[in-house]
Specification:
Length: 693
């Protein structure tokens, strides 16, 4: 046989066994001596950087002189759709994703065109998962190859016969032409029949305008080319990134995947009470939350959701979970993280608070003016709950219909003090207090000036268990001393107890900008400590983010945001993953030599070995200018100016507590109050604070 079939992937996985079975089926059904070509089967692929990262099998191939019979529609001249009939199809090239399932026939259900599979007595939407894999692979190819072939997606039931699948389809001819289900045994011709249902082949014309009696199946556009060597290389991205990760990332992965000890004071209360992890910035709350999440997933086979409103933190944790190889399947244990707003968005659609006006029979696909009317939607959800329109029955139904979005065994909430009462009530209604675990940042408020009280009306130790984290587990001793003194200078109540064994720490304050020489010196120092560029993070104020107006592919004007000095950084050899850029397609950094760069507003929960705070005084100035007093129902013991200063300077401690070893601060205005506060702090600690004029 002249078709070369290669399998790439971990040989110790079920997916590799599936790939071998697939290869054998291909070989037995492609046994034509005249056919030439190659097939690459990638098993257990990790699409590093994509929202849905795990794909069981990816099949890519090209042929010469291979034809098969299909019964399908075709695309003719001028994109005319030709009716379904028996056709001879030349298969030139193809790209497939195949999700493998080992469920028994009695453990799968068909809901319309959606195949549901059982996991922990719940039904998971395998069809939706398969669709997400297809689009993740498309984005992955576009990022790595600059183009993507058309991708057909399939679900392969390894333990289900074709007769059982036909029984599920119930002889519905409409479903026969639309399903993407593969039985335990099938031929390549069967696979191509389903592929042609998803993407009809092209039927070219004769000179007289009549259609030729054969058609062609191509997944590539005219000028695209499958370079199998390059394709194999891009699927090595995950391994390359994991092996090249800095010691800070490796240490974090090791920590979060370590088993939770039962003797820890809160461990036995998980699942029985509300868990509250309380502490100021740098006391390890987010890492502890991640460790609990991974323990629940890995050791208790739970599906765990982490909620935050910080997109940059979502990005950072998705990267860590990917490197820790936590699966993201709908019918397996997993840890996922998303924003609070995205979760509420899914609830609004799932509970039918918005309608699909184009097709009232169909579920709405989007929520118009969601952010503008966010508070109204929250209140509407609460009204539905309080009037009995949303009760346990409706919640359980939503768990089934939107399993991958809503059906979680536990929900973990980062920085819960910044939520509002309506959001808290919605979470408690859907998940219950005993399935909720929160971190409480005490006085770290960003979204509002009023702290959300999650334990109001609850009994300590009976209804909730609280831990009080006091020691600085992130920063080295010198940094904690510096920040404690800075807090005194700016007049806010703040004190973190250093951990004596975390010796060292360095602070650099520059009133002359951030130079290439300073960068090279500190990056080399960062690397000497076995860290990569990822562990050296940049924070910028709004005035360093520019808005560029562009025209999209449809002729519409759009705005793109990006770091103001991106080109200057590139000229200095500083490669950044610009989180201020609204055009990013990947979910997180996918190159070893890229620094994270994001706005101050997005830095909470993140950390770096070295953190560069650019124009810190400009950020504080912006916060002062945009401060608006909110009603907090507290006694008016402070003036507006006192309240503003306390709120803003507490805010300024958040970026200063992101660094583990080295904190670099640049100041633009030498006459600013921040400059004076930092100068006095430097004068107290000249031994480990470097001042650059």
């Amino acid at each position: 046989m002249s078709i070369d079939i290669k399998i790439k992937g971990n040989t110790d996985t079920n997916e590799f066994q599936d790939a071998e079975v697939l290869r054998d089926m291909f070989q037995s059904s492609l046994g034509m001596a005249s056919v030439k070509g190659q097939i690459l089967i990638v098993c257990n692929a990790t699409l590093f950087g994509q929202e849905t990262k795990d794909v069981d099998l990816i099949v890519i191939g090209n042929f010469e002189n291979y034809t098969c019979k299909v019964n399908s529609k075709a695309i003719g001249k001028n994109h005319e759709e030709l009716p379904a009939r028996s056709r001879t199809a030349y298969v030139n090239n193809f790209c497939f994703t195949i999700e493998t399932k080992r469920h028994r026939a009695e453990d799968i259900r068909l809901d319309g065109l959606h195949m549901l599979v059982k996991y922990n007595d719940k039904l998971s939407d395998a069809t939706n998962q398969s669709e997400k894999q297809k689009y993740s692979l498309k984005n992955f190819f576009e990022d790595r190859l600059t183009f993507s072939p058309y991708i057909a997606n399939f679900i392969w039931f390894r333990n289900v016969s074709w007769q059982s699948i036909k029984n599920l389809l119930d002889n519905n001819s409409n479903l026969y032409s639309k399903h993407n289900f593969l039985p335990s045994q099938f031929t390549f011709q069967f696979l191509m029949q389903l592929a042609c249902n998803q993407k009809p082949p092209y039927n070219s014309s004769n000179p007289d305008g009549s259609y030729k009696n054969f058609c062609s199946y191509n997944s590539l556009k005219k000028d695209d080319y499958l370079d199998f060597g390059k394709i194999e290389e891009i699927f090595d991205l995950f391994t390359r990134i994991k092996n090249g990760s800095g010691q800070l990332t490796r240490r974090k992965i090791e920590h979060i995947t370590r088993k939770l000890l039962d003797e820890q004071q809160y461990a036995q209360a998980i699942g029985e009470k509300l868990i509250v992890i309380s502490g100021r910035a740098g006391t390890g709350k987010t890492i502890k939350l991640l460790r609990i999440a991974c323990d629940l997933a890995i050791n208790h086979e739970s599906r765990v959701l982490i909620l935050t409103y910080n997109h940059a933190l979502v990005s950072d944790i998705k990267r860590i979970l990917a490197l820790a190889e936590i699966p993201d399947k709908v019918d397996n244990y997993t840890v996922n993280i998303t924003t609070l707003h995205k979760f509420i968005y899914e609830l609004i659609i799932g509970f039918g608070l918005v309608k699909n006006y184009k097709d009232p029979e169909e579920e709405a696909k989007q929520v118009p003016e969601f952010l503008e009317k966010y508070e109204e939607f929250l209140q509407q959800l609460i009204d539905y709950i309080e009037t009995g329109l949303i009760e346990e029955k409706e919640i359980q139904e939503l768990m089934k219909t939107r399993h991958d979005k809503v059906a979680w065994d536990y929900v973990l909430i980062d920085e819960s003090q910044d939520w509002n009462e309506l959001e808290k009530k919605i979470i408690f209604t859907i998940f219950g207090k005993n399935k909720t675990i929160i971190t409480d940042g005490v006085d770290q408020l960003i979204r509002s000036q009023k702290k959300c009280n999650w334990v109001q009306g609850l009994r300590p130790d009976t209804d909730f268990k609280r831990t009080n984290e006091k020691k600085g587990l992130r920063q080295e001793v010198n940094l904690i001393s510096f920040i404690n003194e800075y807090a005194k200078q700016v007049g806010v109540n703040w004190e973190i107890e250093p951990k004596p064994e975390l010796m060292g720490g360095k602070i650099i304050i520059s009133s002359s900008g951030y130079s290439k020489e300073l960068h090279v010196r500190e990056l080399n120092r960062c690397k000497e400590c076995e860290n990569s560029e990822y562990e050296m993070m940049f924070l910028v104020p709004p005035n360093l983010v520019s808005v560029v107006k562009e025209i999209d592919d449809y002729g519409n004007e759009k705005e793109r945001r990006e770091f103001k000095y991106a080109e200057e950084f590139r000229n200095h050899g500083i490669s950044i993953w610009d989180l201020t850029n609204t055009d990013l397609r990947t979910q997180y950094v996918v190159e070893l030599n890229q620094h994270r760069l994001l706005q101050y507003d997005s830095c909470r929960g993140l950390e770096g070995w070295t953190v560069v705070c650019l124009d810190l005084d400009e950020f504080i100035k912006f916060k002062m200018q945009t401060f608006k007093e909110q009603e907090t129902n507290e006694l008016a013991l402070e003036t507006l100016e006192e309240k503003r200063n306390r709120f803003v300077y507490l805010w300024s401690l958040i970026p200063l507590t992101r660094a583990i070893d080295t904190l670099i601060i640049t100041i633009k205005d030498k006459n600013s109050d921040v400059y004076k506060f930092l100068k006095k702090t430097y004068e107290k600690y000249p031994d480990f604070v470097e001042w650059i004029n």
